[in-house]
């Protein structure tokens, strides 16, 4: 896809500090942003239009969510039609046809056995939903002591209290005090300088740490283990060969639910419909969000094994009673469902999974060509996801990646930095030439960064 022509600046966009002050922006250095605004006013294909009329290549598919590219007419039309037909229906005790259609469409792409979908509006809500389901499941089965939740160091499961508790990113935890009772497995990020392509060959034994936590707490007190099959936000950490299989074995042996947070890995980015399929391991509960609507509407959810759903139904009491006292006003919002159905149509019709598979070797070669670029201490990749670790400035670990990302933006490339990492996750519709251009720009930018 070629970069559209440079558009004239949009006069109507106000960027003065007084105007910008009213919005407290999320996960943003507000003071820096409001001094140097970076407003996006349009998007088409793999490019954003900025308020100053520039075209910027989307190097992270939004926030890992817009693999099909932006401005997809089919999704926009579905959203418009649905808003005009049924803009909202009460989510509790009533339904609308689209949620059932979307649930069936999602199930068709899930690993065998995962076939009951609970909808949320975001990945963070999917985390809380899955964790609450896990606890309630054991309680329903007469094992109310199984409450402890186990996540992983460097894990990211969103920002609600459940997510930051099982998550393992210190910056997301340190300001917020007591969370939900949780323990953490070690992360699986290889040491700097490993430069593995795809799955690291060693590290499966890190899953055995779960045995130590079981020895400490006893499995009768542990509800679930939650991991991202590939950890995205912490720096694109690819699972070592055999690691997820080992976690699965231990969870099965000890009657602990295994939750895969597939908010980034679901719906194509791994070159498979799920990370579960890509890595050959089936969890008991699978969380999704982001790519399911191509980012065009907020929607997330949790897919569970049928027997988990059946357990709740069997213990539900009289039929008019709620089996799971949980849900959101906007769970399965009709407009979001319409976007989800349209996005899945496109993912299927354009064979996005195959497209990712075809691009992966080219993408891998391109990102690893930065191996000797200035400041780069490690590179990791799988599917259309790559992370480059950037050597820290003394005492300011996040500064250099931020400088790189901002300089990339000036050059016409959106690169996401988080912690010590620059992540690269282009849209599935990106061309090899666009991937090369991004990588070349990143190499030059690193070279010019102090
Ligand atoms: C693995 C994972 N889980 C959960 C979330 C949170 O999703 P949301 O921002 O939609 O709440 C994210 C967001 O990046 C994520 O990567």
What do these coordinates show?
- With 450 residues, this protein is α/β, with parallel strands linked by helices.
- It has two domains: 17-68 and 351-448, Aspartate Aminotransferase, domain 1 (Alpha-Beta Complex), CATH 3.90.1150.10; 76-349, Aspartate Aminotransferase, domain 2, CATH 3.40.640.10.
- Helix content is 36%, strand content 16%.
- It is built from 16 helices and 15 strands.
- It has helices at residues 17-20, 30-35, 61-64, 73-85, 97-107, 123-140, 161-166, 170-173, 209-217, 243-253, 275-279, 306-314, 334-349, 352-368, 399-411, 432-448, and strands at residues 40-44, 47-50, 55-58, 114-120, 148-152, 182-185, 222-227, 257-261, 285-288, 300-305, 376-382, 385-390, 413-414, 416-418, 421-424.
- The strands form three sheets. It has a seven-stranded mixed sheet, sandwiched between helices. Strands 1-2-3-13 form a four-stranded mixed sheet.
- A hairpin with a 2-residue loop joins strand 14 (416-418) and strand 15 (421-424).
- The chain is globular and about 65 Å long.
- The mean pLDDT is 96.
- Pyridoxal-5'-phosphate binds at residues 122-124, 127, 156-158, 228, 232-233, 261, 263-264, 289, 300.
